UniProtKB/TrEMBL annotation, chains A, B, C, D, E, F, G, H, I, J:
Homodecamer. GO terms for molecular function: muconolactone delta-isomerase activity. Belongs to the muconolactone Delta-isomerase family. The keyword Isomerase applies. Residues 4-92 form the Muconolactone isomerase domain. This is muconolactone Delta-isomerase.
Length: 100, 100, 100, 100, 100, 100, 100, 100, 100, 100
């Protein structure tokens, strides 16, 4: 059964990081993210305005699968994560029958 | 131009509220929310698991329009809001060209 | 697939609550909790020493199921919840093969 | 449509930064800031008394434009941002008609 | 000498306030605010989007004068204030000479 | 007398740690943890999803014994600990007699 | 085995409490506290200067016993507790041998 | 020996307090404060601008004396206190000899 | 017009700072502080007991002057500042007429 | 007059500190602590379970004396201090007369 989680990722890279190492790291992060977007597991990714942070929504089979995806992020050692498990909301029109 | 905002709404109703008044209030809240969902402005609404709270995403024309919608919520006097303006993320495959 | 979540529940009852109403509420809470313990969904419940709070571990099918159980708690309107989704830990001997 | 945002920027430069690199960084920051002030997007910039921080007000077309300006700040990797989207206030005399 | 202060005002009115008393209170608040805006002391007032709060900028002679204005607000007993004294910023083009 | 404690351990390793030293450190941590799990003192260890953190439950004779085990963790200098002493909960079916 | 715990208790009584009920409550609290002091379980109780709070040290057999004592406090429903389990400190001269 | 303490007092009176009771309470508070000012124990009292709060400096014989004065404040049940014990500063010119 | 501000300064020097550089820095800080004390602008400076911090009171002409003094502190890059603008308190006997 | 203070000391040593320098530092800390314990000024020192922290109680003549002792700690530059001045508690049986 597919489940949703909101994940906010705050990134803190050392300001004096080697530019080539940084470039390589960010390229791997982007490729990794897009792979999971294409597979349908990483449903949304938005930039938080003015911050080195994103808000994402994941659709996965389980807590285990979510952890596995996040743990594998190339930027994971530089990130602070805030995880919010989500459920359907009773006011969501997508969950209501035709007469709702 | 359409813009996105994440809004987390935490609800705190007085435990001793009159049940009829409470029922009426929640019915009006649901109707109000669904009206804005149908118009396309309230794109997502998820329940935060185990909490009287939701995480929502709004697509509006402006800060003004977002404020107007939130201010009009029947539950607004009982809510604490956390607003995060969103922008496109450079890793989002929906924003990439075909060769990305 | 069964998943685990740690849930800390902090209770704040109004000090001037009617004793009979309070007694009835707590009796219903206890019965509800024990029903879910007997079904195997509420795996652990511990009192946090010196606080009107508990730390619990739930084993459920999904975020939805966890929310449904918590939302139905008779004490829910008086509780503040802290939810932590759990996954297997690579050092857990219960997850290791015989040679680990 | 022009929108307003309050942005507080807290700066934390490493105390042992090379003075020439620091001077160059601050000169580029100043030039960048003044360019956006002259274009009308960076409406106000005030120093928070006694702190290495400023409070600014931006007038931009969209969340996207605000993010793009902030992300480009030479000091961005050393800043912590607090973003507050703003709307017109019903008591603002500038928004009131002549008889208000 | 005129000085600037940023003031954020968060309002918390009791949800069960008498509607007439509330209406009267808000009308007096608005009149009071507009009087100080017209005198030039209350330079800016913006609504914080989605919150019962405003961000304002005051231009006054002294700490004393600012306190006197804020203390007199009809809504003062229902407000939480955050005060930030402001100074000119060295990057502000309004403070630079013509060749800057 | 055996007592229970919940312990949350948040790990912060320097991102630039030498990989071999890091590998050795983590191997020693795992062996140390499993030794105490096998002895029955470290009853549960779960990964907090998406975080470099675990939630554990210890069953020890005393505060002294718990401190001694935690202080000896190879990762201890890199950990932030949150300790919650636990007691039996009156709703726990494992503590109730047969007729409860 | 005797164990020590530091407990800070912050008291918040409703300002409009009936004086007689309040007096009775405080008298029962004092008697209860002194009973546990005389038995040797409540080793220290100090007033935190300028606050309606105390810092206490308990010497008990177990987490269970500590919880039982605290839960029984007449003021418990009006208190916020902060619990710190204590252990011997290697610099404590009371724990050192004669040559230390 | 005289000792100094900084004390910040934040006041929260119920907005619906009876005006006469409130007036009486504030008159007693003022008289009490001025009595301790005249005796030399309450050395400074300043209003925190825009807040129902003051910052005070006390010169007393002991922790006991400070607690006794603060506990006796008519507004004490409505106040949140922040206490900072003070000592002489090595840069203070009042503590330096004539050649410093 | 003279105005008062309370300023708390928390100092965080790197533990491995070169002793000579540190000594020179602290000597310059002391001289700078005493210069402003002698001019009457830095009215009070107290050590916060047990902390590398001070609580000071400044009497200056304006926000601008306060910022200029604080910004010039040799220790400024190592300090975290908390600024509280002050005003006269209605209970202050120094502000009352002879009959008060 | 002797006064009491609770002091919590949280220690943060750099993980990569030279072992010999660290050993020397900790030996000096222990000797310093025991000297003040033997003189009767440092009445209690307890380890906070699972944390590199202690909770101590000091009995000193004044704020000045407490600051002097703490400032002299070899570990002081690596410590975060929380200071709570203490007074006698009206429920303390040690303060009550024989008939209490």
């Amino acid at each position: 059964m597919t489940q949703l989680y909101a994940v906010r990722m705050d990134v803190a890279l050392p300001p004096d990081m080697d530019p080539a190492a940084r470039g390589d790291l960010l390229a791997r992060e982007k490729a990794y993210s897009q792979e999971w977007q294409r597979s349908g597991h990483w449903r949304h990714i938005w930039r938080c305005v003015g911050e080195y942070a994103n808000l994402s929504v994941f659709a996965v089979e389980s807590n285990e699968e979510l952890h596995s995806i996040l743990w594998g992020l190339p930027l994971f050692p530089h990130m602070t994560m805030t995880i919010t498990p989500l459920a359907g909301h009773p006011s969501d029109i997508a969950l209501a029958g035709p007469g709702a």
